[in-house]
From TrEMBL:
Matches recorded under PANTHER family: CYTOCHROME P450 (PTHR24292), CYTOCHROME P450 310A1-RELATED (PTHR24292:SF93)
Stated name of the protein: Probable cytochrome P450 6d4
Organism: Culex pipiens (House mosquito)
Membrane topology: Peripheral membrane protein
Family, as annotated: Belongs to the cytochrome P450 family.
Organism superkingdom: Eukaryota
Location, primary (coarse class): endoplasmic reticulum
Length: 342
């Protein structure tokens, strides 16, 4: 099976449900409009590369040329969906514990509450705090960042577990030890006890950061140590996440998949050298949800199945240089077999 394709469908189903209360079942219905838009927004086309590149590196030129970061078709789809969901929930009083519910609360009341008795969207004021366009902008961020990033990470993690069967067996043993009765629901307590599996995810994010670079702005004049070079305040800065996280001075044997290096992350790894989710005030707001999604996906696969690389994928991995998200040039195909010990 093409693991990335399966995982992309799995996570778009999850994001559609958790974010918007929409059940799409793209595993069985790959032509669903939600799935089609998810492909369109991140496909490695020249237009998308130009949109992203101009937004990051030449924002003034982008504005002058009238470029948008998102295709108009995707923007219209999201705006129509947000309008439809808001209208239905405000009229019917439907309550669903998802991101849209919180955004509608904020629009109508100016605040959000996750208390059991305060999940209604609220209609206490006629002066709306957010427009539908502003809600749509927030929904788009969640939509774009929430699924393909997880799909990419879990694909690379499974790829490394295929190449390191001893690590795969160790992960499966930990899952068996923590989740003794697999017929019962998985709890948050279960997830917090899967330390080795979490280390595998951290090591995957180190070796295969979702985005190969971060863009920031220098907030004050900074002199580079040991030189007479100064970076002026306001200078756009691009940080090579991939280069930093494969620096042998920070990570010995950087090309080796070694989850043990994260067993004591705080004391052994230089501060701010692991930037898969960014750092500081602009750290990824979805970091916890993203990790939970990946943990649950790996548990679902590895608790029941063994995975190994298909012959076509058992070679040197090459990245797709045109893709916005870190992904392989060719599909990563795996042979999935039911675990005999389960």
């Amino acid at each position: 099976v093409d693991v990335r394709e399966i995982m992309s469908r799995y996570y778009i189903d999850l994001i559609a449900s958790v974010g918007f209360g929409v059940e799409i079942d793209s595993i069985n219905n790959s032509s669903h409009e939600f799935r089609r838009m998810s492909i369109k927004v991140l496909e490695p086309t020249c237009k998308n590369i130009l949109r992203l590149g101009s937004t990051i590196f030449m924002p003034k030129v982008k504005d002058w040329l009238g470029f948008k970061m998102i295709a108009q078709e995707v923007e219209d789809f999201m705006l129509n969906m947000v309008n439809s969901i808001a209208e239905e929930r405000e009229k019917s009083g439907t309550i669903r514990k998802d991101i849209m519910q919180l955004l509608l609360q904020l629009r109508n009341t100016g605040s959000v509450s996750t208390k059991e008795d305060r999940w209604d969207v609220g209609m206490s004021t006629s002066a709306k705090m957010l427009s539908f366009e502003q809600i749509t902008a927030q929904a788009l961020v969640f939509f774009i960042a929430g699924y393909e990033t997880s799909a990419s990470t879990i694909t690379f993690c499974l790829y490394e577990l295929c190449r390191n069967p001893a690590i795969q067996r160790k992960v499966q043993q930990e899952i068996d030890d923590v989740i003794v009765n697999q017929s019962e629901p998985i709890t948050y307590d279960h997830l917090t006890r899967l330390k080795y599996l979490e280390s595998c995810i951290d090591e995957t994010l180190r070796k295969y950061p979702v985005i190969a670079f971060l863009n920031r702005e220098c907030t004050k004049d900074y002199r580079i140590p040991g030189t007479n070079k100064t970076i002026p305040k306001g200078t756009p800065i691009v940080i090579s996440t991939l280069g930093l996280q494969r620096d042998p001075n920070l990570y010995p044997e950087p090309n080796r998949f070694n989850p043990e290096r994260f067993s004591d992350l705080k004391s052994k790894i230089a501060d701010k050298s692991h930037l898969s989710f960014g750092a500081g005030p602009h750290i990824c707001i979805g970091q916890r949800l993203g990790k939970l999604q990946i943990l649950l996906g790996l548990i679902a696969v590895l608790s029941k199945f063994d995975v190994q690389l298909a012959e076509a994928s058992d070679g040197e991995l090459k990245f797709n240089k045109r893709s916005i998200i870190t992904c392989s040039e060719k599909p990563i195909c795996m042979i999935v077999t039911e675990r005999r010990s389960v």
